[in-house]
Predict the structure.
Amino acid sequence: MSLLEVTKTLCAHDPNDRPFIVGIDGLGGAGKTTFVKKLSRELKNRHREVMVLPLDDYIVETKKRYETGYEEWYEYYYLQWDIRLLETELFKKLRNNSTDLTLPYYDRATDTIMPKHIHLTSSTIVLIEGVFLQRDEWRDYFDYVLFIDCSRPNLRIGTFFVLKEILFTNPVTILSFMAIFSGLGLATTGATAVNSFSLVLGVFLGSALWWLLLSSLAGAVEHRMKKRSLHVIHRVSGLMLLGFGVWSLGNWLMGV
C-alpha cells in the first residue's frame, strides 16, 4: 500500500472511546522511521491527533540484553524489551482507554531506565514503530498493522548513496582532491573543456566504485557481527574522528 492509501485508511476510522493502535513493523533499516514521519505528517495535515511511539526508546539496559549467556538471536528477540511490562503499561492501557501512560524510557547516554509520562486522548492515532511487533504477546492489541519490507540490495543502495553524500559534502575530501590535482600539475589554465570533463568524470566514477565496494562489504558483514561489536566499532570510529578534528583544529590554530 502507498502512503496515501494508508493515510486514507486510517482517516476513515471514526474516533471511538479509545486510541486507535497502529503497528509499523519491519526489519532494521527497512525505512520504518522515515515512513512513520511521513505518515504522521499526512495525518496531522488532515487534522488527526497523532502520537508516535518508537519501541527502541523503551528497551532495557545493556546488561540485561547482551552477554547474558543466551544465544544472540534469543537476546535480540526476547531480551531487548520487558515484554510483559510493555504489554501491561502500554498495550493493555491503550485498549482500556487510559489516556495517561508511564513507560520505561531508555536513556542511551547513561544506559539507565527512567519513567516517561505520556498524555493522549481517546481520539489519538498511536503509531507504534519497531521490530517484532507481531509477537504473540502484542499482536492482538493492534487495530491496524503494516509491515515495511525492504530487500538487502535496496538497503545497500541506500547505504551507498548516504556514503556518496558524505563524500561530496566533506570539505576535507574536496581539498584533498585539489591538493592532488595541483601536485600532479593537473590544475593548469591551459586545460581544455574535454580534459577537465574527463578528469571530473574519472574522479566521480572512481569514487563511486570505491564507495559501492565499501557499502557492499559493510552490508555483507554487518548482519554477521554482534550488536555489542558494532557498538564498539561505532564508538572507536567516533573517537578517531573527534581526535582527527582536534588535531586539524590544533594545526590550523598553530598556523594562524
